[in-house]
Design goal:
The chain is α+β, with helices and mostly antiparallel strands and about 280 residues long. It has helices at about 1-25, 35-40, 45-60, 90-100, 115-120, 150-155, 160-165, 165-170, 190-195; strands at about 60-65, 70, 80-85, 100-110, 125-135, 140-150, 180-190, 205-215, 220-225, 230-235, 240, 250, 260, 280.
Length: about 280
């Protein structure tokens, strides 16, 4: 029984310490309490504490220095990408130009029924299916599964998809993308996404399903994306609209933004972007 309980206790301590680090209660560069102190505080063994610290170190939140202790990494140096929900399509092409991608699979298959329906495909129509991992500064932050109608997928090669943003390739073919519908939820990492995103199986992920349409309403891309929540976040500017008594929040569509940055904090004048803080410029 003890062997099955200890990992659960270790994960609980890991989550407690992680929350304190993310919230800033444990400041960047600060030293965590020693293993004996943490073991006494949480009424567990030092082995359990060590397992919790191993998880924090694997996630890059702490650095363990033999003889000195465990220290919190400077969280300002690991900045999640911020996605602008009010300018979805522009941001997607921009992000493709500013990040790196690893193509895991590429092929032509019969689509699942739900995807065929969402793209408005005829019976028997195939799709080009690809799985990619997107990285910033060498660190994976998204696991992308896309389905594109076969006639459109044939306009680009596997090598091109590995090197260029998919929406850019779609628009190169002469197809105009006009609108997209999307849903955002939370999920847990399965074996393949967990391995690709350098996470444990069962880790929490943000999930986004997006369907892109051309001006006629025809579906040209189905995207299912999984994001590491510590490296990616969604952003939307809102404005108050309506008459008195019926005022409400509405997306601030069309408002120009200077850049998409890897964190909401702006770099100070004269400072160079640090690891993971590279700006992702908006191009109209």
């Amino acid at each position: 029984m003890k062997s099955s309980v200890e990992p659960l206790k270790a994960r609980r301590i890991y989550l407690l310490l992680r929350d304190r680090i993310v919230a800033g209660d444990l400041p960047p560069g600060g030293r965590l309490p020693g293993e004996p102190a943490l073991a006494a505080e949480h009424a567990v063994s030092r082995v359990t504490v060590r397992r919790a610290l191993d998880l924090l170190e694997k996630e890059g939140l702490v650095q363990r220095k033999p003889g000195s202790g465990t220290f919190v990494h400077d969280s300002r140096a690991v900045r999640p990408i911020v996605a602008d929900l009010s300018n979805v399509l522009s941001h997607l092409i921009d992000m493709g130009r500013s990040t790196d991608v690893k193509l895991l699979s590429f092929g032509y298959v019969a689509p699942p029924e739900a995807i065929a329906e969402s793209l408005g495909l005829k019976p028997g129509e195939r799709v080009q299916r690809s799985v990619r991992v997107r990285l910033i500064d060498g660190e994976p932050f998204s696991y992308l599964t896309t389905h594109v109608p076969e006639w459109l997928g044939l306009t680009y090669s596997e090598a091109e998809l590995a090197a260029r943003p998919l929406l850019e390739l779609i628009e190169r073919s002469g197809v105009k993308t006009e609108r997209a519908t999307q849903a955002i939820n939370a999920t847990l990492a399965g074996p393949e996404p967990a391995a690709a995103l350098d996470l444990e199986i069962g880790s929490p992920l943000l999930t986004l399903t997006r369907i892109v349409h051309d001006p006629s309403g025809r579906g040209v891309e189905h995207l299912h994306a999984l994001y590491r929540p510590d490296r990616y976040s969604f952003h939307m500017d809102l404005v108050r609209i309506g008459d008195d008594g019926e005022r409400r929040w509405s997306p601030a569509l069309g408002r120009p933004r200077a850049s998409e940055t890897a964190k909401t904090d702006k770099n100070k004048a004269g400072e160079k972007p640090t690891r993971g803080s590279r700006a992702i410029k908006q191009r109209s």
